[in-house]
Amino acid sequence: MTDMRRLLLTLSYDGTRYAGWQWQANAVAVQQRVEEALGALTGETVRVTGASRTDAGVHALGQRAHFDTRSRIPADKLPFALNTHLPPDIRALEAREVPPGFHARFDARGKHYTYRIHNAPHASALFRSLTFHVPQRLDVPLMQNCLQELTGTHDFAAFEASGGTAKTTVRTLYGAQLARSGPTLWLSVSGDAFLYNMVRIIAGTLVDIGMGRVSRDAFRRAFASGDRLDLGVTAPPHGLELTRVFYEGESPACKQDFDMSCANFLAGEISP
User: Fold this and answer.
1) 227 a catalytic residue
2) Main-chain dihedrals φ then ψ at residue 150, nearest 5 degrees
3) Could you tell me if residue 152 is left (phi over 0), alpha (psi between -120 and 50 degrees) or otherwise beta?
4) What average pLDDT does range 60-85 have in this prediction?
5) What CA–CA distance (Å, rounded) separates 144 from 149?
6) Can you give 218-252 as a three-state secondary structure string?
7) What is the rounded CA–CA span in Å between residue 90 and residue 98?
8) Residue 180 forms beta bridges with which residues?
9) Is the dihedral of CA 103, 105, 109, 111 positive or negative?
């Protein structure tokens, strides 16, 4: 009988200083810092498996990751202890025990992402690492109208950047919305899975639609053609946040996550 147990962490991080989630040979990744902190806390060699391999510069409010340990630290106390070993731009928010066969990535039923655009003549001094600065005037009602074409099940082949390895490009978006709070535009999308750079391509295309650079029927044409060239630019990584990963029994509701992301951003929960 083994005394090993599997825990599921919920993590938040500012990705500005990191080469993404996954270990890198010549750069520091979030996964590396989390494993180092768990090792210092437990005295074990710990490997964590994340639900999403966020890219360099991408942030997370609700990344999920599992790991195995013999440590007897209670799950509800572990985040407090772990945060004493983590750098201030990575925080453990929650931990809970899960069955031994649970897998943070393969058992996920979907994800929710938030993309932020600072639409003002001048870039934000405080949130420059969390928002994509667009100084030009944007037709937000048109962008909101076009965004609704993405919900439902579609072949999103045109929405995958070069280097993607998905076996199928069919995805289901449960919800998508675009809202404005002062100079900040909040793009919120929730779906069963996402292709490589899919959210950043959606965000960049919406900006191009809002500026009149791309036709308002760009999304419809891209679904029909499967051609990446029918869409706009890929928005930069620093505007993107992995807001939540959800599992069986957890709601994929988009609005609740959207409200949480807005509240945390405006309260400065993710340090600029």
Assistant:
1) no
2) -85, -20
3) left
4) 97
5) 10
6) HHHHHHHHCCHHHCCCCCCHHHEEEEEEECCCCCC
7) 22
8) 185
9) positive
CA 37 distance to own-chain centroid: 22
Could you list the beta-strand ranges (E) of 2-109. Answer: 5-13, 49-50, 59-69, 90-98
Q: Could you give phi then psi for residue 259, rounded to 5 degrees?
A: -60, -40
SS (H, E, C) 143-181: HHHHHHHHCEEEECHHHCCCCCCCCCCEEEEEEEEEEEE
Show Cβ contacts of residue 26 under 8 Å, excluding neighbours closer than 6 positions: none
Closest CA to 243 of 59, 91, 79, 34: 59
Amino acid in the structure at residue 237:
P
With tokens 């060239």, the residue in question is 229
Of the candidates 239, 157, 227, which has an alpha carbon nearest to the alpha carbon of residue 198? 157
Euclidean distance between the first and final Cα of the chain, in Å? 47
Q: Which residues contact 227 (CB under 8 A, 6 or more apart)?
A: 158
Has this prediction a pTM greater than 0.85?
yes
**DSSP 3-state of 191:** strand
Token digits of residue 257: 């996550």
Per-residue model confidence as pLDDT tens digits over 187-218: 999 999 999 999 999 999 999 999 999 999 99
Instruction: Evaluate whether 67 touches 38 at the Cβ level (below 8 Å).
Output: yes
Q: How far is the C-alpha of 150 from the C-alpha of 162, rounded, in Å? A: 21
Q: Provide the residue type at 164 as one letter.
A: G
Q: What is the pLDDT of residues 113-164, one digit of tens each?
A: 999 999 999 999 999 999 999 999 999 999 999 999 999 999 999 999 988 7
- Residue 168 vs residues 31, 40, 160, 222: alpha-carbon distances, Å: 27, 40, 11, 16
Catalytic residue among 55, 68, 89, 107: 55
Length of the chain: 272
